[in-house]
C-alpha cells in the first residue's frame, strides 16, 4: 500500500511541470508534434532520456525531468533551441542532488 501511494505521489509530482506549462500558454500542448519529435530525438542522441518534452502550437517547448548536472540541463535547453521552428524554451528540469 505504501509503495502504491509513493508511486502515485511520484507520478503526480512528475506531471506538475507540464500542468504549469499548460497554464503558461493559451495554446494547447501538442506532445506528438514534429517539433516535439525532433527535440526528443536530439535529447536521446545526447543521452538525456530523463527529460520530457511538450510543445504548444506556437512552437514553444517545455522541458521537465531530472538530470545529473546543471550543464546537462543547459545542454537540453540549447538542444531544444537548436531545432527549427522552436520559438521559446521553458525549462522545469531539476538537477539531482549529489549524495
Explain what you see.
It is a single chain. The protein is of the alpha+beta class and 99 residues long. Helices cover 47% and strands 21% of the residues. The protein is globular. The mean pLDDT is 83.
Question: Any descriptors?
Answer:
47% helix, 3 helices, 99 residues, single chain, alpha+beta
What's the SSE blueprint?
Elements: H1 2-24, H2 34-45, E1 51-55, E2 60-67, H3 70-81, E3 88-95
Parallel strand pairs: 2-3
Antiparallel strand pairs: 1-2
Compressed to H and E, one letter per element, the order equals HHEEHE
What count of helical segments does DSSP give? Answer: 3
Strand content: 15-25%
Task: Please compute the radius of gyration using only Cα atoms.
Answer: 14 Å
Structural shape? globular
Mean pLDDT: 83
How far apart, in Å, are the first and last alpha carbons? Answer: 28 Å
Strand tally is 3
Helical percent range? 40-55%
Largest sheet: 3 strands, mixed
Low-confidence stretches: none
Question: Structural class of the secondary structure composition?
Answer: alpha+beta
Describe the strand arrangement of the main beta sheet, using strand numbers: 1-2-3
